[in-house]
Please model this.
Amino acid sequence: MADQDPINRGNGSGDPESDPQVATIVQYIKDLSVESPSSPQAFQWQAQPQLEVQFNINVNAVADDVHEVMLKIEVAARSEQGVHFLIDLSYAGLYGLRNFPQEALPPFLLIEAPRLLFPFARQIIADAAQNSGFPTLLLDPIDFGAAYMAQLQATEQAQVDSGGNGSTGETGGEASFGGESSGDAEPTDATDDA
Model:
């Protein structure tokens, strides 16, 4: 009799066939480039490098209910002496989305999915810097929600300024946006010189 009771279906709160569902299928490095063009001289420089961090998010529909979200992060460490290192990472994930309302797709794909990818991308960048002979680099978290809202407002303002209808509809199943910061992350040395 419990099998016929619609109230006792487990932890779900509705029909599993019609509720929105999300699954991370796989996460992977799509591209990784690490350069230290000024080595070995860069290891003798005393100046603390200024860090420039830029990010971009690209979304592509690869199947009916499957989207690829790619988080591209570029880190450049420069000082007056020259370039210490450059790290360019494209880290992606495939997400299966079923029964998602159309209006919920952009916020998930451009805010939540990158938020899920970021800790892994951050670790890859930290390891790349350290494996290149530089102090460990820990990037500050990125507020993807604020960046998405700023991009949305800029797009709407550009459409209003150009006499458009203010619509922000996406076409072709692709979307992207990006941002940058300067000096928000600093290399940290894991050892103490006491």
Q: What stands out?
A: The chain has two helices and seven strands. The helical segments are 105-131, 144-161. Residues 5-10, 165-173, 182-194 have pLDDT under 50 and may be disordered.
